[in-house]
Amino acid sequence: METRDVIVLGASAGGVEPLRMIARDLDDDLPAAVFVVLHVSAGQPSALPEILDRAGPLPASVPTDGQPFERGRIYVAPPDLHLMLEPDAVRVVHGPKENRHRPSVDVLFRSAARAYGPRVIGGVLSGSLDDGTAGLVAVKIRGGVAIVQDPAEAFSAEMPKNAMRYIEVDHVAPARSIGKLLSGLTRERVDTATAAPPTTEMIQETQIARLDPAELSNDQKPGVQSVVACPDCRGVLWEIQEGDLLRFRCRTGHAYSPETLFQAEDEGVEQALWEALRALEERVALRRRLARQARERRLHSLAADFEKRVSELESAVGGLRQLLLKKPSETEVS
Asked: Nearest CA to 9 among 160, 205, 184?
């Protein structure tokens, strides 16, 4: 019998304070290693390792690729690199973005679930959209423990709420209680021999995230081909059903959970509307100039034709402007 000795935590907007509180409350003799992903800007250094190092008894640092990890330490994903776990080692890789983020919570959670099964405790904290949901599904499939920060107190409740929509989580707790909860769970013994094996999708997607050449060249992609295009590279997306969660991945490795895909599509629709508005306004300006020139040359019939077209285009411009003033969800056709 082994213990739950791998803790993975994921957060986004509003996640620094709950992470700090958790680090503060962990036991100084914690018999587990802690791994943290916080969404940060790619071009900015992260102060999170220093914040967590000062917050509590456990040392916190950014690991290097291939570094063995130790219990009683906190390892923080660096900006613009995925943090992944393999047996007895950490991987830090520049793989494809998942849910439009690198580092991605899903990448960390899925790799931990694959490598350590029921020894994993996964925690989703404050953040927007739904990164972490698919990863927590993988943790549960392999027999691990799922925790979410109480959405009622989270600065941004979407990540915890979306996890709860698709997963029967084991614990919903305020940030001030999660540190002690984790310390207690790491003392529990688990039978790894009876754990469900990693799914084919779990294995393939972990290999994709670390840019395994054999998997990237494999034509047998996880899931089934969909009719939706990838918002990032415009390639075909494959649908992956894992538990109750339907999610998507393209040939190059970009991956999306539903809410992130919806937001990306909304952004694409808005961009297309702005481009259409620009094109129409340019046509209006050109036809006004042609109408004015025709009037100056006493070509009244031609001028009237241009002015009629200007009127029609201005009506279309007004309609597009009204659409752009609405929220993306309000422009959807019901």
From this structure: 160
